[in-house]
Specification:
Chain A is an alpha+beta fold. Chain A is built from five helices and four strands. Chain A has a four-stranded antiparallel beta sheet. Chain B has one domain. Classes of the chains: A alpha+beta, B mainly alpha.
Chain lengths: ~180, ~450
């Protein structure tokens, strides 16, 4: 059927209209593929039923890794590999290790979390995104409905989108 | 839904709509460079080349080309380093700290301020590498396995902490800045054609603005802001420890960390104002960077300037109250010794003139703000010079007392960083979106004149 890889794209002019529309469309049983907005719309992730991202946990784990690496490195080098007697002070002066431990914690947390974000969201310089409507990164709010997964016919979904406040409803297919 | 008081003045004026924001910011990226831009760019590149020659000579012949002597082993190099790092503090402060405090006015200035941070830290790093004398051995600061058995770097040293602090600060700031740029590059990509589309397409990292990605983006931004906030405070704390952990009278002070951090924010905001006041006029951004933004920044300058003023007085009080003879002498020498003029410049520029910002008229005057921001930048350079040079110039043994006079290579290396900074900043202003379009669009409904 012509439904393979083909989408209905509802274009909204206002984020609040989109928020209400998402609730309405989901209630009617139509599955939304995804919404595309030019800026983060607060409450859209809830309306779409997304859970809060696990990335902060990933960041925390990377941070802990940074802490462990920093302490292992400094204690290993100064305490065991080449202990130096500096005025009879301890070989492992923990207070002196605080700044570098902190910096490496932050460094690994920030990079680990952001690179994880790039990987899970498929953000990379070599891919070309599927844009349902180029205006969705400018001033329009876009809701895409995958015709392949929805049983309803095109006309009824179009009516639904129109009645939920869409200013345009277009059809879009990808190769 | 978000509710904003109608009493609160709008952050974005001119009744802008979403498409107006895109148009106003993208037209700078898409249009041909203006004459003013070309003149400034040429000028910056000339300074950069001249400074590059001086820096090359410094590297080729060694730091004997500077005016350093046996007594004054640190002077303009470290003064300039601390000055640039201080300036670099405003960017992350604006984007991270103000994000945590939900200060929405940050959205118009955070992009440019972060760019300034990154370029300022590069300038600071130039001096760190140059002052080593043998820059090609600069990697010795890293804890790498080496040919001397396994003699590692000394993690007790504040200078070692500095290596980690500055490099972490630079990389995390760059990351934070770039993550914020990705959605805006996507906006430019969709408007561009040909080779520009390919370049901005690669820069935009496959961004499509889906709700799921935005949700993750927001989570990542919040955590990045959370870790960047203590990071900003740690960096200048550690820079101050380069001095505070030594035994030189005038440096050996516990007040240094908070005092340096306040001074860094003070000078950083002054530099943001100097740059943004010019950019806003040249790029017609008056609706995005309003007088209210300028006033908010001036209030921060007033606050941090006053903190710095109190720190100066506290230092003096402690020099007397501690009863340490050498400390008392160091401070008498600062104010009344041969470098009294540097001390007087510092006091005038950092403590006295910013007090003019108590007047609402001055805070809201662009001309006054611009003049005072330049004065603050000069004053903060003198602060570092006073701390470093006057403290060293009077050694414990009077026979080694000395004065410092800069050579053309001291001046040239400083000029090099100016050339580098402005060349980078002008390239940024031409090819990157100077205002965070996505974030401005997100606040426009609650904070613009347009009623919805």
């Amino acid at each position: 059927m012509e439904k393979e890889n083909s989408f209905l794209v509802g274009i909204y002019d206002d984020e609040d209209v989109l928020l209400d529309a998402v609730a309405k469309v989901r209630k009617s049983g139509v599955k939304i593929h995804e919404c595309y907005t030019p800026f983060p719309v607060h409450g859209l992730d809830d309306a779409m039923g997304y859970n809060y991202s696990n990335l902060p946990i990933v960041g925390f784990l990377f941070g802990v890794t940074g802490t462990i690496c920093a302490l292992t490195m400094m204690i290993g080098m100064m305490g065991f590999d080449w202990p130096m007697d500096i005025g009879g002070r301890p070989y492992i002066p923990l207070p002196d290790f605080i700044p570098i431990t902190f910096e490496l914690t932050v460094l690994l947390c920030a990079f680990g979390m952001t690179i994880s974000f790039f990987i899970v969201s498929n953000l990379n310089p070599w891919s070309t995104p599927r844009m349902f409507d180029p205006r969705s990164v400018d001033h329009k709010f876009v809701m895409a409905i995958d015709l392949g997964v929805n049983k309803q016919d095109v006309a009824s979904i179009t009516t639904l989108l129109k009645s939920s406040g869409a200013s345009e409803v277009n059809k879009k297919s990808f190769e | 839904m978000h509710v904003t008081s109608s009493v609160r003045p709008p952050l974005v004026t001119g009744g802008k709509k979403y498409e107006d924001v895109t148009q106003d910011i993208c037209k700078q990226v898409e249009g041909a460079p203006s004459t003013a831009w070309k003149i400034s760019f040429t000028f910056s590149v000339i300074i950069f080349i001249y400074g590059g020659y001086c820096l090359w000579m410094t590297w080729y012949d060694g730091i004997g080309m500077w005016g350093l002597n046996k007594t004054i082993g640190w002077s303009w190099d470290i003064t300039n380093f601390v000055w640039w790092v201080g300036i670099g503090h405003a960017g992350t402060l604006i984007s991270a700290v103000l994000l945590l405090f939900r200060q929405k006015w940050r959205t118009s200035i955070n992009r440019a301020a972060e760019a300034m941070t990154i370029f300022a830290v590069i300038c600071a790093a130039t001096f760190i590498i140059a002052h080593m004398g043998r820059p090609w051995l600069g990697y010795w600061v890293l804890p790498l396995p080496n040919a001397f058995g396994s003699l590692w770097v000394n993690f007790n040293s504040a200078l070692m902490w500095d290596v980690f602090a500055i490099s972490t600060y630079f990389s995390v700031s760059l990351l934070f800045w770039y993550v914020g740029l990705i959605p805006d590059f996507a906006t430019i990509r969709e408007r561009a054609t040909g080779i520009r589309r390919v370049i901005y397409g690669a820069l935009s990292f496959n961004w499509d603005g889906s709700a799921k990605t935005w949700s993750r983006y927001e989570a990542v931004s919040l955590v990045l802001a959370g870790v960047a906030t203590p990071l900003v405070l740690s960096v200048h704390t550690i820079v101050s420890m380069d001095f505070a952990t030594s035994i030189i009278p005038g440096w050996h002070t516990t007040i240094f960390p908070p005092y340096f951090v306040a001074g860094a924010i003070f000078s950083g905001f002054a530099m943001v104002l100097s740059l943004m006041l010019v950019t806003r006029v040249l790029y017609n951004l008056e609706d995005y960077i309003t007088i209210d933004h300028v006033e908010s920044m001036n209030k921060i300058i007033l606050t941090t300037g006053s903190i710095v003023g109190i720190a100066y007085l506290t230092e003096f009080f402690m020099a007397w109250y501690s009863g340490v003879y050498y400390e008392a002498f160091a401070f008498q020498n600062r104010a009344f010794g041969p470098y009294w003029w540097a001390y007087a410049s510092m006091m005038t520029c950092n403590v006295i003139t910013p007090q003019l910002f108590w007047f609402r008229k001055v805070r809201r005057s662009l001309v006054w703000t611009f003049i005072l921001s330049i004065i603050v930048n000069i004053g903060m350079w003198f602060e570092r010079f006073v701390i470093i040079c006057t403290s060293l110039s009077r050694d414990f043994i009077p026979s080694s007392w000395a004065m410092f006079s800069p050579t053309m290579y001291d001046v040239g290396d400083f000029l090099f960083t100016f050339g580098l900074f402005f060349t980078c900043f002008l390239l940024f202003a031409k090819y990157f979106p100077v205002i965070n379009m996505a974030e401005v669009k997100a606040i426009i409904k609650s904070s613009s004149e347009e009623k919805h």
